[in-house]
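Why does residue order matter? Because the sequence determines the fold. Keep that principle in mind as you read this record.
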Amino acid sequence: MKQPYLYLFACLVSLSVASAAQDIHPLVQTMKTAYTGSGAIILTDDHTLVIEPNMPDPLCALPRTQNGQTEWSYYSFPLASITVPLTAIDDTLIGEDQVFTKPDAASAYKPGDAGDTTLVVIVGLPGKQFHTLTYDRDKFAALGPGPHNSSAYGQAPDDVMAFGLTFANRDSARAFELALRKAVLLARSQTVAQARPPRQ
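Structure:
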């Protein structure tokens, strides 16, 4: 009597793993839709994204007010592509900031003004890095219209521990973050399940 139950259990487990693998695709589709205005996302396998931000990236200005004084920090993420294994992301450190991308942001700013762009920051787990293709913003900006060789704007491989993605729409940024967190947790659980030895 035991054998049919073991067979049924094995079938249920394999069905469960198969359905979990399918669940990641709708999450990636949500991320793609949310990121459409800022770039493209490709799923290369069930657990790896390639993110291709629009070029050139915006220069992000972030104000911080302390003791009545406003100080500005500036961030740039000149990345042509980022290869992102979902299991390498620290889902607890996915964060966001409202930043300003207009050239006159610092001079036009009044305390309490909200930024025009949402910056989503993604950080790797300790010891993990993301493979990227970087480029020179100034060289890219100086190029005229038309196709250009990547060497013309200084494209080169690099590894980073964290990167930022920009979204003009805060709702899109939030939808992206939520789907990304779920995808990271799902990819991690699938990886653990695949690593377990088969039950005898």
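Residues 37-141+150-195 form one domain.
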